[in-house]
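Input record, target 12 of the design panel.
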């Protein structure tokens, strides 16, 4: 990629994102209504302490049904991104494809006012009998779909914790002496995310070699 241009970091929903639909139309209709949006995202999202880079758009499919008492929205979001591999730190591709369900009610329909706190997927809007914009929920769905750990491949060998060599590119021949403290930190992080490294029970630095 040509350098120079600074990538945008999205801390919240991109401003131009809008996913409106006509709630009145859904309420009048006996059938469910299918909706589709392509939301541009050219920038990064920071989550789980790492950066996910997006270059295209988020594809949103929705199916809406309901009546005056409330609308149900079944969402499917898909997107492509890249994020650093948890083992070797090279950029790894990532496909997001997830389903979500949200419920929308009009603020005026809060007779049983306590279900407001009960269900986090229940969204109160001014009125479901007019335009309803679900882009906040699309953004939320995208962010919670970001995996905590991304791998460039299931077989990724990671980097050598002694010399930092990318072990996917061959053996570095390290004997296991003289640990660089920077890589000890990396090794520790690997344990925090709970990775199962085959044949490695704990952090055995003091090699038993005599
Ligand atoms: Zn890797
Ligand atoms: Zn090494």
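The sequence produced for target 12 reads:
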């Amino acid at each position: 990629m040509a350098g120079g241009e600074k990538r945008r970091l999205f801390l919240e929903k991109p401003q131009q994102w809008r996913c409106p639909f006509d709630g009145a139309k859904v309420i009048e209709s006996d059938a469910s209504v299918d909706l589709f949006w392509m939301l541009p995202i050219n920038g990064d999202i920071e989550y789980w302490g790492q950066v996910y880079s997006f270059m295209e758009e988020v594809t949103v499919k929705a199916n809406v049904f309901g009546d005056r008492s409330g609308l149900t929205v079944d969402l499917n979001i898909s997107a492509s991104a890249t994020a650093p591999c948890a083992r070797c730190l090279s950029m790894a591709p990532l496909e997001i494809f997830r389903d979500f369900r949200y419920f929308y009610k009009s603020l005026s329909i809060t007779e049983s006012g306590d279900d407001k706190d009960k269900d986090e997927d229940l969204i109160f809007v001014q009125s479901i009998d007019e335009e309803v914009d679900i882009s906040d929920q699309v953004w939320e769905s995208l962010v919670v779909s970001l995996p905590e750990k991304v791998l460039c491949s299931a077989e990724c060998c990671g980097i050598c914790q002694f010399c930092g060599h990318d072990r996917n590119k061959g053996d570095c021949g390290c004997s296991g002496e003289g640990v660089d403290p920077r890589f000890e930190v990396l090794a520790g992080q690997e344990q925090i995310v709970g990775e199962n490294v085959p044949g490695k029970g704990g952090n055995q630095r003091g090699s038993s070699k005599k």
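The first strand starts at residue 9 and ends at 10.
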